[in-house]
Amino acid sequence: MFGRKKKDTPTRVVHYEGVPGFPTDFPCTIQIVNDIFVIKRINPETTVDLPLSRITAFSSMSEANFMLKYHGQAVTTSKEKAIPKYYLVVEYDKGTLAFWGTGKEWKEFNKLQYLPLKGPSHIEL
């Protein structure tokens, strides 16, 4: 109906770190399509495909928790203190990816966090 989000609609997020060639704080979309985690950078469009079989975990957390866990200090990078940021961390066989969004995207981050993942059975370094 009106205003409802379709299930196959990508989630708009902001890339924070981890994807080579994507600058920090650059808008992109994420979506799962046929067991592939698809990341699309917006203008210029670049697509990155990461098979779910390579992903070991999705984690959703507040900005303070993300900064403390991955950067050693619970600092806030937001210019607007009234709008909290939430982070999605994607752990896969060769590293981590991080994206951020606001409360609207946080709901989608939480859904991903509870996906049943098999993870890789073999890791090549």
Explain what this protein looks like in three dimensions.
The structure is a single chain. The protein has 125 residues and is of the alpha+beta class. Strands 4-3-2-1-7-6-5 form a seven-stranded antiparallel β-sheet. It is globular and about 40 Å long. The model has no long low-confidence stretch (mean pLDDT 85).
Figure out the total of helices: 2
- Structural class estimated from helices and strands: alpha+beta
Q: What shape does the CA trace take?
A: globular
Q: Looking across the biggest beta sheet, what order are the strands in?
A: 4-3-2-1-7-6-5
Radius of gyration: 15 Å
SSE series? EEEEEHEEH
What's this model, at a glance?
It contains two helices and seven strands. It is α+β, with helices and mostly antiparallel strands. The chain starts with 10 loop residues before the first strand and ends in a 12-residue tail after the last helix.
Keywords for this entry:
single chain, 125 residues, 7-stranded antiparallel beta sheet, 7 strands, globular
Topology (SSEs and partners):
Layout: E1 11-17, E2 26-33, E3 36-41, E4 46-51, E5 55-62, H1 63-71, E6 86-92, E7 95-101, H2 103-113
Antiparallel strand pairs: 1-2, 1-7, 2-3, 3-4, 5-6, 6-7
